Amino acid sequence: MNPELKLGYNSISKDYNNRYKFNELPGIYNSLKKIIAENNYKIILEVGCGTGHWLNKIQDKKNRKIFACDISTGMLKEALKTTADNHLFCADANRLPLFKSKFDLIFCVNALHLFDDKRAFISDAKKLLSPNGSLCIYGIDPRFRDDRWYLYDFFEGCYKNDLLRFPSFENIREYFNQAGFDNTQFEIVEKIHTVRTAENVLDDPFLQKGGSSQLLMLSENNYKKGIEKIHSAIKNKSAKTFVSKFTFSLISGKNI
User: Fold this and answer.
1) Domain, as residue range, for 156
2) Cα separations (Å) of 83 from 61, 139, 142, 177?
3) Which of 71, 65, 9, 77 is nearest to 41 (CA)?
């Protein structure tokens, strides 16, 4: 992860969970719950766990051992407040200190784009899976179908940067195949379509400087320029609606 972005996540960690007040992404949770239950997975690792939102969703009393890591110490401090029963550690996704460990399930949610080497992570993750274990990658692809995000229209460089950071769904599937996974699957698990008006777009939590990695990466000057463009669009009525349309998909494979 970019060192500046890592520090940025430390600085926004206390407010990070505000995003889930508007949408808890139930489709992702239901998918995870189903995979764990159907396969009776007991030893689970989340990579890029952030504040522990998904750990809290899947922990229960069924003798599961849940491990999780993140490169941001600020995020982990927040996770520790609510996930005391889990095993948390600080680590880079491409340098996991796990050599003899084996997991039934390894998953990451909206985090792969933050890893330095996506292909290597998927290859290395397979080596950490027990027989019949699964790797599950949840995320978005800014190129996908008619998905769109109004931030791309107002903040210069955001879309271009995301095309570099986010591998396409097709590329991720290819990484799975190259790593030797069997039965690689693609499934749409969540669709978000939010339309904000001039009256409420400025209340969008993702529009705040620390609301997304896209804006967190911008300089203060470029961020202010984008906000000014939005104010101008509201004032001259050149934009009546501000659309956020995302498709969250699951790409998974088994270690057969």
Assistant:
1) 3-254
2) 13, 23, 32, 34
3) 65
Residues 25 and 250: beta-carbon distance below 8 Å: no
CA dist 96 → 17, 26, 111, 114, 200 (Å): 25, 29, 15, 15, 42
Which residues share a beta bridge with 90? 70
Beta strands in 29-144 (DSSP E): 43-47, 65-70, 87-90, 103-109, 129-139
Strand partners, 242: 196
Q: Give the model confidence (pLDDT) of 87-120 as tens digits.
A: 999 999 999 999 889 999 999 999 999 999 999 9
Q: Which tens digit of pLDDT belongs to each residue from 134-182? A: 999 999 999 999 999 999 999 999 999 999 999 999 999 999 999 999 8
Closest CA to 107 of 60, 161, 174, 50: 50
Calculate the average pLDDT of the chain.
93
Burial 67-83 (b: 16+ CB within 10 A, else e): bbbbbbebbbebbeeeb
Domain count, the chain: 1
**Residue 6 to residues 48, 72, 195, 203: CA-CA distances in angstroms?**
12, 6, 30, 25
CA-nearest of 189, 194, 147 to 28 is 189
Give me the CATH number covering residue 22. 3.40.50.150
186/18: higher pLDDT: 186
